[in-house]
């Protein structure tokens, strides 16, 4: 089967999944107590029943649920994610505004955790049973067992407040009017702490997986074959063990995409990262149904995209599929 | 003759907690230029350990305790790691047992060959490619240009083993170590690979250390033989001497355990058939997805035969011939597409699930893998009594019968209260037989029931089976890839190829005057037929 | 009777400090949460008011003693019968798009647009007979009856003046201009990067000479309270408006060098923290039980520990900062014995009381926990209900609570911000801003109605004193604290808080010492 | 069993983990004896640092509540949420995975689509929404965590069952005339227990982390003192009283660490084939 056909097949399946997610979440979210009109009226500090009713009419919340459902789903099928009550703009625009930030964060965290995880995992496996191995695996275990938000807080206190190395939050220096290289540098400085925080846990996951996978692959016959050819240990590790050991890591990475995107909610909140994770939490408290549904849809699509990417990577590594 | 390699006083220590302190001890032998030396022994004899020690490929916890191995004036065992690495693949090549796993699944065959040159800094990349193509040609692989770009999964088992040989040959080593290189192959492929090794050995004048458990292979290929047992060399000598006039009792026992080619006199089938199979068909279809093409493999292609009461019918064939599928289709572990399986007048294939559950008792199986065929979490008693109890036998009676059966298969009745992992492979196979007998079946299907066992154990289990069959007048369908075993046990033999029955008849007819070409080629390929 | 109050001279005297102001500079102000919109006419959220108060203006501003000050109106007159309010407007005011501002804009904005979209103003407008524009720079409000608090409704958040030429004849709520607000204020809207910041720039054509002083203002959206504190410490932001960091951080931040703070700027709102007690059913329906709750609570502890000493224990439904407050009422101190006495008198049977905390941050959560402990100590069983903003609104609107925390603005006058919580005519499901407790007392109703339209302040004071005495005895609601939200800023920032709504409209006069 | 204990105790990390966990369990069980008063009780001046005042070894929190009492009572909640949500996740995941793997075909397809579906929704986001909808109480938080945690279980069990059902002893059981359910529950599932147990120990750890993350966002049960609550409540004072979030953070860290160490020890002891060499 060709790669293109495989991706196409996945995408087709994904569409059905996404539609189901929309349906499930629509009813879940509408089951929550309170509605956006109430919240907005509440934020205004004063409102009467007339005002709230007016808001409900404006948002179409006075219609029966099935009508709202039909309107929403038929909108989604035409790529119209509706209008955000809270932010007063089309949800799609809102999400497209915020999506680059989340993509930047998650992809960086993902890439960083995968790279570091694999490198350290290899290093630990190569020193199996020795001091270096214990040090690396202990470190991984520590990251694995530490709450994400806690790391985030500590990182801010240490790196931003005490040391002043990195900005504590935000997406870039506001109003600095930077361009070119300076802008990239500025963005990177802002990206560092959130990406590190989000990535640490996953780094630990990939590290552990890489280590055990490398150890397992090292026992395989073809490694013995490679040795019998007189290859150096370095070549064996690089050429024979690593690629084979990566397969389960890539699979795992694909399976954990959902957790990665979910973790972005926490990270974005703490670091004031203007992405869709934060948008999700905000629109949940505001009962901004359309935005919340839209974020769910897009983040699920992100998970699927991650899965497809890992699929492609898997195929690139493994000729058998 | 000048030895290329002299091993003196070799001892390899095992980690604490192993069943013995040393994997091998006091091993001394010479490997002469241009000879094929076969090292024979059963599993655990230390033959592979010796080879790995020479290559410097011992597992982490196993180490050479003492001894020397002089090769080209240097002691291999005393060389530093970097020096030994330089020798590997260059002066000493090695091939392994499992062609399925010995190649890196993610690398092209060509790259796996050329990296031998690369590891030893020989030639330019273009030259390497040329050399690789030549090697592929030399080991008899078709279409070298295509093979060089192929991945291992695109090759058959035999082809992979040829590719392995090409890698080992790349730098024209003085010694080739072959560790059971044909054990995992079908008999015809095995014959071809043995042939290839022999040809190449002669062409290159290499010394070959050939490790095997199969005296048939020894007879086929060896110049000299070393017999090992529990880490000791018990006998060594020329192939002729060892095979014809073995000195050591163990060698004698081993040779005696090999099923002979003396075909039993056919017993005419007189009684009524207990099983009749009519036009059985099965095609496996891998379910394609929306965008995946379906693939189908015809496993059984219109097979018909009968088994008479008290008869032993052998089904022989190579892997993929469909012989196991026939066995599983009869007991409906595999649902046949069409055809009838008539057991005492009742068509098994037409039974409903509920009817089947009670009818299943009548055909039982003995499985191949003694380690997978018993539930590791249940006591033996449970394994032997669960079936009868489900079929309505009172508990006490089932338990008593279970203990009785253990004695019938020559185990202690106390075995009932132990767990499977406390038993050896041969003992587990006996338990498997007892389990089949416990159901009091009309027919027993033994699917490669002795294939996983060492020769001496194999002989004991076969003896037991033969004895039980006679004593209890069992009807037996014996599925095997091993022509010798089939010849020894069966009344009639059916030969299968590509899902079809190519020949069926009394053992003597099929083996002595085979009608089908395929049968002839199978028989010709059996190693050591001349001896 | 107040006649011919012309305040323009007064303003010059007190609005402008002695030193000369420096021009230029940029101010970064924390904004939380992100506002839904900056269209002050339709959205009255606190963050909207914070930003839009410098884009839009109203006729008047109020100083920190709630005295009216000129804004778009340079002077005003109230007739002797207190029925005619005449405003003279500045003449050289332009909208941000260059169109001239006239009295027609005022009439349109108040009479048409706000009447439809602003529920709070709508209540006051019921007393208005007509709004007319005799000429381009005069507006006349004709009242049906005297309405004492009326002079207090001309604040920017309540009555922002919106451009007629943009809104007339459109669907106000969906007018595309809502995203790019056009006002007359000292700062113009420039950019809004959602989730990140709102950028305002100086209005060069502003009608006051030299003003505003600042070049640009960034409102920074930082969702996490701790991060907001860090941002201030790092110097990333210069101003923390009241309530934008948790109280524990306030204490730490104001102790830093070069950091100033003020509790002023909230007088118009006078946030009054209280807990609705369900007067309809459950243990709280009993007056003695409610008194027991009052005695059980240690409000001084709450102020000192949870609010770090900011604020004042509330003794009455009217804040001491609001007009017509009296301290001549029963005082409920922290007294467990009295609480137990009252509890016994109420015949409380141990039924569990549900406390609905205010889901606006940790401070309020702690407060609910402290209240629960206080109640436990006198033998009242209670449980804290978990909820978020939406659920909190819903539960209050559905009267699904026993005790529910809230805080309400008083808008300077009991008729605007207090009576709404106690009038029996104001009991209606579906809104958390009316008489949620369900208190019914016809006598109080009558006095409130009378006080709103009483002609003289003295007459009003007398009525409001009676009302407060009666209410404090009935305890329909547990009054907790007069909250103080200190504004924290760098000391270089001058004249930031000069009005009763503080930073909301304070940037007109603010400047940075260079 | 003795073998198991011997292999387990050979893993030093696992023994340390077990000791930590036993300590935590003991604290949780005897919490009402160690600190009979409610952990919510305001007993001293707020913000007492640890080791500064006798009787309050870990100091007091923002309202003057005893941190040590909170920690001990919080252990109960963390453990209960961890254990119960894991149990519920197993109750969903094990049967689903087992049926999918054992029966294959349409059942498998359906079950796996269902699982994939849940894995496509970012799990933490789903947990947040579920808790918000159901309103945060101990049972709803536990349920929400279970609902987002079961898919990996289903996958694992399915994979195990898929490989086990091809074993010859399963064929033998079939030939003995056993019913499908008896084969599945009597022969297949018991052999899949080891990896399930290992995974369960890690899931308890993850559940504790999830609970604390939810509490951190203010989605905890406000009537129950939990470690996550303590951090969430103390994060606003992290600068002035860092120990208030540090101490419960360490408690979480240690407990989760212990569970992970135990998980590894169980893995080594239950799957000796995969045991790490060199120990």
Number of strands of chain D: 0
What gap, in angstroms, lies between the N and C termini of chain D?
20 Å
Low-confidence stretches of chain B: none
Please name the two chains that share the biggest interface, counting residues whose Cβ lies under 8 Å from a Cβ on the partner chain.
A-C, 56 and 57 residues
Radius of gyration of chain D: 22 Å
Q: Specify Rg of chain B, calculated over alpha carbons.
A: 25 Å
Kindly list the characteristics that best describe this protein.
heterotetramer, C: 514 residues, alpha+beta, Dipeptide-binding Protein, domain 3, 6-stranded mixed sheet, 30% helix, globular, disordered N terminus, D: 279 residues, mainly alpha, 11 helices
Give structural notes.
The complex is a heterotetramer of chains A (321), B (531), C (514) and D (279). With 531 residues, chain B is α/β, with parallel strands linked by helices. Chain B has helices spanning 47-55, 81-87, 109-119, 125-138, 144-149, 157-169, 187-204, 215-221, 239-244, 249-257, 323-330, 353-359, 380-390, 395-408, 425-438, 455-472, 483-489, 507-512, 517-525, and strands at residues 3-13, 22-32, 36-40, 63-71, 74-75, 92-95, 175-179, 207-212, 224-229, 232-238, 273-286, 295-308, 312-317, 338-343, 346-347, 363-366, 443-447, 476-480, 492-497, 500-506. In chain B, helix 7 (187-204) crosses helix 19 and helix 14 (395-408) packs across helix 15. Chain C has a domain at 272-483: Roll (Dipeptide-binding Protein, domain 3). Helix content of chain C is 30%, strand content 19%. The longest helix of chain C is centred in the last third of the chain and has 18 residues, at 457-474. Mean pLDDT of chain C is 87; it is low at 1-18. Chain D has 11 helices and no strands. Chain D has helices at residues 2-10, 12-29, 31-34, 67-103, 105-120, 123-134, 138-164, 168-175, 180-216, 227-234, 242-270. The interface between C and D is medium-sized, with 30 and 27 residues. Chain A: InterPro entries: BPD_transp_1_N (IPR045621), MetI-like (IPR000515), MetI-like_sf (IPR035906). Chain A: Pfam families: BPD_transp_1, BPD_transp_1_N. Chain A: The chain crosses the membrane at residues 12-32, 99-120, 141-168, 188-207, 245-273, 293-317.
What's the short story on this structure?
The complex is a heterotetramer of chains A (321), B (531), C (514) and D (279). Chain A has 321 residues and is mainly α.
Map the helices and strands.
The complex is a heterotetramer of chains A (321), B (531), C (514) and D (279).
Chain B: E1 3-13, E2 22-32, E3 36-40, H1 47-55, E4 63-71, E5 74-75, H2 81-87, E6 92-95, H3 109-119, H4 125-138, H5 144-149, H6 157-169, E7 175-179, H7 187-204, E8 207-212, H8 215-221, E9 224-229, E10 232-238, H9 239-244, H10 249-257, E11 273-286, E12 295-308, E13 312-317, H11 323-330, E14 338-343, E15 346-347, H12 353-359, E16 363-366, H13 380-390, H14 395-408, H15 425-438, E17 443-447, H16 455-472, E18 476-480, H17 483-489, E19 492-497, E20 500-506, H18 507-512, H19 517-525
Parallel strand pairs in B: 3-8, 3-9, 6-7, 7-8, 13-18, 13-19, 16-17, 17-18
Antiparallel strand pairs in B: 1-2, 1-4, 4-5, 9-10, 11-12, 11-14, 14-15, 19-20
Chain C: H1 8-15, E1 26-31, H2 46-52, E2 60-62, E3 68-70, E4 73-78, E5 84-89, H3 103-117, H4 119-125, E6 128-135, E7 138-143, H5 164-167, E8 187-193, E9 197-202, E10 216-221, H6 225-234, E11 239-240, H7 247-254, E12 259-262, E13 272-277, H8 287-296, H9 299-306, E14 312-313, H10 336-346, E15 353-356, H11 362-378, E16 382-384, H12 389-397, E17 403-408, H13 414-417, H14 442-453, H15 457-474, E18 477-482, E19 487-490, E20 493-494, H16 503-506, E21 511-512
Parallel strand pairs in C: 1-10, 15-16, 15-17
Antiparallel strand pairs in C: 2-3, 4-5, 5-7, 6-7, 8-9, 9-10, 11-19, 12-19, 13-17, 13-18, 14-18, 20-21
Helix pairs in contact in C: 3-4, 8-10, 14-15
Chain D: H1 2-10, H2 12-29, H3 31-34, H4 67-103, H5 105-120, H6 123-134, H7 138-164, H8 168-175, H9 180-216, H10 227-234, H11 242-270
Helix pairs in contact in D: 1-11, 2-4, 2-11, 4-5, 4-7, 4-9, 4-11, 5-7, 6-7, 7-9, 8-9, 9-10, 9-11, 10-11
Keywords (chain B): ATP-binding, Cell membrane, Membrane, Nucleotide-binding, Transport
Family (chain B): Belongs to the ABC transporter superfamily.
Protein name (chain B): ABC transporter ATP-binding protein
